[in-house]
Amino acid sequence: MTTKIDTRLAGYASPVLSIFRIVFGLLYTLHGSMKLFGWPIGTAVPTGTWPFWFAALIEFVLGLLIVAGLFTRIAAFIASGEMAFAYFYQHWPPLKGGASSSFWPFDRQLGGNGGELVIMFCFAFLLIATTGAGALSVDARRRRRVATAGAAPRRQFRGFRR
Amino acid sequence: MTTDLDARLNTYSPAVLSLFRVVFGFLFTLFGTSHAFGWPIDFGIPTGSWPVWWAGVIELVTGVLITLGLCTRIAAFIASGLMAVAYFWQHQPLGLWPIGPPQMGGNGGAESILFCFAFFLLVFTGGGAYALDARLRGSRVGSAR
Predict the structure, then answer these.
(1) Helix, strand or coil for residue B98?
(2) Cα–Cα distance, B66 to A119 (Å, whole number)
(3) Is the ipTM beyond the 0.90 threshold?
């Protein structure tokens, strides 16, 4: 009985993966736009400032690609790497040297290093890099067009079971 | 070529899904212990206070289950629902945008949203290759599917 429910739920994995991708992508894009343009909140970082302006540019562009589901795997892989770098460079900075901050990735005001979101984006995008975009994406649409033109449709994500 | 790469990446997805599950579950557990016991960071929540201390207890229990991959789908469903409630009850009234803390004009609810949708995904995918669920299923059926 449990197995039956599992199988039914697993049948929806691909569209849910897309919803998950869109939510993570949107929030990631907003983190970029908030540093690039000061929208929707915050103040814009001066153009060209290292490292924040460049980080914001990466977040904004890759975030839009991830939301659309276009070149999803490569975009998500780069985004994941950027988040790993941000964590060790800005939040828990053994790479930077000298700066002391908490080991724990919680809110800065409460005594953490403020990196919880960064960790979550990092591993979520790593997952998306291996699964691809799911059913609702530009990638899936493009693939369908290619598939009807005669190419092998092997790229399709077929669920998480081996 | 892209097709081959995609197919190869797909074969890693059950393992990476488990890694993702462990990271999110463990972070969630730490949020739970911080809310309920003030460790590792003291969130300053009095024991037994409604609703945040109780939320911490639920986070701790479901977080441990998700980290281990035991009853993953059910635990993830409860955790996802808890985060949805937390967002609309605790964060949404503070501001429109989830990014940034209230001091900056956001509502501080980004983590809630991310946890909510990450656990919602786990409801449908299960725990992945490395989970107690997968081990138990393997021993019951006689072969790891």
Answers:
(1) coil
(2) 17
(3) yes
